Amino acid sequence: MASITIRNLDDETKQLLRERAARHGRSMEEEVRHMLRHATGAPASSATAEQPAIAAPPAGALSGKRILLVITGGIAAYKSLDLIRRLRERGAGVRPVMTEASKHFISTLAVGALAADRVFDDLFSREDEQDVGHIRLAREADLVLIAPASADFIGKMALGIANDLASTILLAASCPVLIAPAMNPSMWRHPAVRRNVETVRRDGVRLIGPMRGEMAESGEAGLGRMAEPLEIAAAAEALLDDGPKPLTGRRAIVTSGPTHEPIDPVRYIANRSSGKQGHAIAAALARLGADVTLISGPVAISDPGNVTTIQVESAREMLAAVEGQLPADIAVMVAAVADWRAAGQADEKIKKQPGEAPPPLLLTENPDILKTVGHHEKRPALVVGFAAETQNLEDNARAKLQRKGADWIVANDVSPDTGIMGGDHNRVRIVSQSGIEDWPRMDKQSVADRLALAIAKSFEDINASGS
Ligand SMILES: Cc1cc2nc3c(=O)[nH]c(=O)nc-3n(C[C@H](O)[C@H](O)[C@H](O)COP(=O)(O)O)c2cc1C
After folding, report:
1. Is the C or the N end of the chain the one with fewer CB within 10 Å?
2. Packed helices 276-287 and 229-240: angle between N→C axes, nearest 10 degrees
3. Is 121 in the pocket of ligand 1 (CB under 6 A)?
4. Best CA proximity match to 334, nearest among 261, 275, 271
5. Is 306 a catalytic residue?
6. What is the atom index within ligand 1 of the atom nearest the CA of 150?
7. What is the C-alpha to C-alpha distance for residues 397 and 409, in angstroms, rounded to an integer?
């Protein structure tokens, strides 16, 4: 086919073409080819590597939903361009709002072309505000998604400041709000940011991320990186999923990750738990409609977007957080809680003394969180514990079931050659009073989905028996 010179088209045609191409995820040239093929009845050629075919959007929870995407001023704004595509692939309409700062990082042209909508950026726009545009924008959204959400913008949200279009829309919005924070790890750790994040969480705002990893701008690493566009799209999908849900009205507590038991201000006792299984279970229960609080030890993965996450460090902090969340209907205790902690935590870093033997490390027992919950006066109707074992898996799991007062024990073999601890797959056995179910090896997400379904089923059975 002959080459097509787009730049010879007049501006208005070019703009229409740009929008149409962005809508279909094609380059402008490919869009013209597609239109010509369609007009002449020529068969569609197979996609090339440069012009990939776009699959029809799946009919998921985002299909037909209107997302108001607020882009704020952070380096991660470049990922918002891909996010727009991911949301639109899933059938959502994306209306972009940009803060002044964000325009230093990406252009309104790129955002508008990918969203196939104009970019809204001016609170005092004469055209838009004739019909009080900021209120209309808020009302016409099914979800306000802020990605990236800068420290500055989260601070404004926490205080209710409304001094630009994006922040003013937020005060007028009554739909769900999801934010994907992105900032340098030291900013994320700052007490002011911690306070603001807690405040917006309490106001009902959902968070996805931030993630731990390398920062785009500085070669630094830590907690602060924006979640990936696919993860953000999945969190938006989960938030807007209004299909029938078997666990609606049930409260669940899930623990996840390791605990860190301090020896002195810089050293601690830990284990290799990644939190992947616990986090996946929390998200799977929430997808089935449960109101989930995830209590997580220190992990390198992001918080699921559809649950409330409380971060803790030690076993004692985890127990206090769990008890603070009772009563609940379901407790799934996945965290690999340290059995012991240092008998006394040194206030100062323990110094190595030349010529002296290493100091003894005296241990004392940690509280048993599963056992406490299993025998609690506010015991949830269903208590599920995890047993990570390297030997006598079934016998140990059966004994644990009795000792801890649990209804089910999910037993897994975490011997190093299984690759389960920290890996992406799991092979579990579900031990209950009625026997043992052996599940095949599958990814942790699938284990989570299957366990969440089994939990939902057990509540159906409870309802059916009228108890
Ligand atoms: C190069 C550069 C990168 C920045 N990256 C971030 C960032 O990732 N996260 C953040 O919260 N602020 C970041 N900032 C600071 C914000 O741009 C600044 O706080 C701004 O006022 C945010 O405005 P907004 O929240 O209205 O968009 C960065 C600034 C510069 C100059």
Report:
1. C
2. 30
3. no
4. 275
5. no
6. 11
7. 6
The encoded tokens of residue 299 equal: 């992990």
Q: For residue 387, what are its two tokens?
A: 């047993």
CA max distance for the chain: 88
What mean pLDDT is predicted for residues 438-460? Answer: 90
Residues 6+ apart with CB under 8 A from 68: 95, 97, 137, 138, 140, 141, 143, 144, 145, 169, 173
Token pair for 319: 């127990």
- pLDDT at residue 420 in the model: 64
d(CA 309, CA 312): 10
Confidence of residue 327 (pLDDT cuts 50, 70, 90): very high
Q: Are 416 and 408 in contact (CB under 8 A)?
A: no
pLDDT digits (tens, 9 = 90+) for 136-155: 888 889 999 999 999 999 99
Question: What domains are there in the chain, each with its CATH number?
Answer: 21-26+57-240 (3.40.50.1950), 251-340+362-464 (3.40.50.10300)
In this prediction, residue 388 carries a pLDDT of 82
pLDDT tens, residue by residue, 229-254: 998 998 898 888 877 789 999 999 99
Q: Which of 204-213, 303-312, 328-337 has the highest mean pLDDT?
A: 328-337
Under 8 Å between Cβ of 40 and 66: no
CA of 443 to the centre of ligand 1 (A): 37
Question: Which amino acid is present at 28?
Answer: M
The finding on whether 74 has its CB within 6 A of some atom of ligand 1 is yes
Task: Determine whether the shortest distance from the Cβ of 196 to ligand 1 is under 6 A.
Answer: no
151 in contact with ligand 1, CB cutoff 6 A: yes
93, two tokens: 């309409």
Q: How far is the CA of 206 from the centre of ligand 1 (A)?
A: 21
Residue 50: φ, ψ to 5°? -75, -30
Nearest C-alpha neighbor of 91 from the set 54, 117, 65, 124:
65
CA–centroid distance, 211 to ligand 1, in Å, is 17
User: What number does the ligand 1 atom closest to the CA of 73 have?
Assistant: 27
What is the distance between the alpha carbons of residues 429 and 424, in angstroms, rounded to a whole number?
17
